[in-house]
Amino acid sequence: MTEKRAETAEAQLEQLVALLDVETIDVDLYRGARQPGGVGRVFGGQVIAQALQAAQRSVEDKDAHSLHAYFMRPGDENYPIICRVVRDFDGGSFANRRVIAMQRGVPILNMIASFQRREDGLAHQTDMPDVPQPEDLRTETELRDEISAQVPEKFRPFFLRPRPIEVRPCSPRNWFRPEPVEPVQHSWFRAAAALPDDPALHRAVLAYASDMMLLGTSMLPHGVSWMTSKLQTASLDHALWMHEPVRADEWLLYTTDSPWTGHARGFNRGRIYTRDGRLVASVAQEGLMRLRKE
Known about the structure:
Helices cover 16% and strands 36% of the residues. Strands 1, 2, 3, 4, 5, 6, 7, 8, 9, 10, 11, 12 and 13 form a 13-stranded antiparallel beta sheet that branches. It contains five helices and 13 strands. A hairpin with a 2-residue loop joins strand 11 and strand 12 (265-274). It starts with 8 loop residues before the first helix and ends with a strand.
């Protein structure tokens, strides 16, 4: 893998797939590569996805259906991520794995993942919201390009860089002059190009993308955004339930809401639907939202 960050969304996706192909170092010990050209803090979705891939490598004949993770320290893009898997349980129908993701000898994330052998059962789901179709919406890349002149020059390369996940928000926000609105948003997303036919990889890419567009929902009622200089944010935990098989390279609707914020924390929930209305995943996350004096 090159040490230079790819310059197109499609090449970015190739690098993401390589990041998620965790290397087996020893029994139940894996290495997730560092982001090529990465600078600063590791994206939380990357840590979750690499930890999930490590857990999936240790389980046979069962699929991951849920994970619960806690972020303890920010990851550093200068270093790979080492994942140690603990086999807590292997049963006839379910299996459980505990993953400790580490950098430089200290944990940055703890995660528990549960696996189930496929079986049928009673079924129902919440209906998908009625929203515009992705073809009728502008991409987040186009929206970012449109306001790039307002972005401070030192942040512009990060703000405008291509991303491996294409996003089309149904109700775009003004990052620089946000108005208080209801804490609900809807966005279509998909991988920037076709992915290999590997169900475990699609689950990992879904886990990666599930950390996007979530914490920002709890900011909506307060008229702040990622560009608010006094706002300090960070993901504290992340829970993902994978209900149905999914292709992460086909359009998925991410609908999120935030029922509560307080005590410098924001709580967010998410539902992920396929285009034909199947509820394939549910998400929950609490994040730090601290307004500093300066």
